[in-house]
Amino acid sequence: MPDAVVVGAGIVGAASAYRLAEKGLKVLILEKEATYAQGSTGKSAAGVRVQFSEPLNVLLSYRSILEYREIPEAAYRPIGYLFLVPEAQAEAQEEALRVQKALGVPVERLSLEEAKTKVPFREEGLAYATFGPMDGVIDPHGATAFYLREARRLGAEVRFSEPLLRAERREGVWRVETLKGRYEAPYLLLCTGAWTGEVGKALGLEIPIYPVRRMVFATAPTPFPHAFPLTVDLGTGFYFRSEGSRLLFGRSNPEEPPGFREGMDWRWLGPTLEAGLARFPFLEGLFLDRKASWWGYYEVTPDHNPILGFVEEGLLVAAGFSGHGVQQAAMVGRLMAEEVAFGQARSQDITPFRLRRFREGRPLQERGIV
């Protein structure tokens, strides 16, 4: 009998399984897809950054980046994040910058002229910019493969094409049923991303995590060379970055309703480009590569922050990252292993991320959501 069943073989589930196995637990991973990283992990734009406003998010990302840069398979590239700060958000971003500097993470305030040495843009309405030289991108598939390989090396078992059907707690263990078998374990960890709300219902629980579709658009190879950092216009949420000879770009649609809607929403391309061209006129004339563009799900909570840790006896959740799961998975895996091994996380206090914050009316106010 395993000590822990981890549901989901995305980057969060894989990192958690590895760290659980590292602590000597016998781990079983169940994944509904035929292979790993097929949900939000594989559809991620792959960014990692420390530029958040809440200390918890800053540290989760910072400590995860420190781990990724030691994993060759993660292919960490510190291309940087450049935030263009509108005048209306200048004071709030100053406070976030103070939080980041107090925690010792590398973030710089730049004048608009300094920022223009990295990316050309129109200055209208902007106050200044911030740049995280440690921010960048990783290969989510490579990192997930590394964690699964290490988990298996330590005795973990991975079962693909085996979705969770139901589970219930009886006599101190979770009894888990899939199409292919039944398993028992004292601990059950849900790393099920955008599907966590649905999985919770199968367990008779209300877990406020729901899917919201997001698009990532890709240009054709450009006629000019570039090495742009991941650049965000905080006023509109438009972002872009270099990816080889292409540019990737996007913008979250605030009107996108929750739900498992599939396929590209090409109607959102127009509003996305409108916001982008207003700030970055050099984008005009570039060709879109529809085949290289893609869509995926954000796993969203009411306050756009994850739910972490025990939600009831023997049951843990690590999901709801609202777009920053890849950024924080490495550290979250360690924290979930500590929850099981010690009864609570030790490396970092995750109290503000626990499910009960919603029941108690204490949502987390993170201003760095893109």
From TrEMBL:
GO-annotated molecular function: oxidoreductase activity
Keyword Oxidoreductase: yes
Keyword field contains Oxidoreductase: yes
Top-rank taxon: Bacteria
Keywords: Oxidoreductase
Residue span, FAD dependent oxidoreductase domain: 3-338
Entry's Gene Ontology cellular component terms: cytoplasm
Name of the featured protein: FAD-dependent oxidoreductase
The species this protein was found in: Thermus parvatiensis
